[in-house]
Structures are given as C-alpha cells and as structure tokens.
Design a protein that fits this description.
Number of strands: 2
Strand content: 5-15%
Strand order of the largest sheet: 1-2
Oligomer: single chain
C-alpha cells in the first residue's frame, strides 16, 4: 500500500463529521451575515444552534 493514511476511531470520525458540517453551516452564516452599524455580524441565536450540534457544552470549552 502506498501513500499516507490515518486510521481514526469511530468517536473521532463522528466528531470530525460534526465539525465538518458545522464549518459549512458557519461559512453560510458568514456569507449571509446581518449588518449592525455598518459591520457584518452573525448573531448568537444563529451561531449557537450550529455549535451545539457539535458539542452542547461548547461555551464551557471555548477560550480555555
């Protein structure tokens, strides 16, 4: 067998797929942003549900 490959656990594969889907959704939210005082914004009520699909406790793990 040629080339590099990595075997990941099922748990990591599930997390990867959730992160990949969330990334795509966040990209769409960013492109379809709202405007506040001439600045592009994505409000928490739109971003939160996307992040919660990856980890419902995402806010406790952020900014560590």
């Amino acid at each position: 067998m040629e080339g590099n490959f990595t075997v990941i656990s099922n748990e990591d594969a599930v997390l990867f797929n959730k992160l990949k889907k969330a990334y795509k959704q966040i990209c769409l939210l960013t492109v379809n942003h709202d405007i506040l005082n001439d600045k592009a914004v994505v409000y928490p009520n739109k971003l939160g549900p996307v992040l919660e699909k990856v980890d419902p406790e995402w806010f406790e793990h952020s900014c560590l």
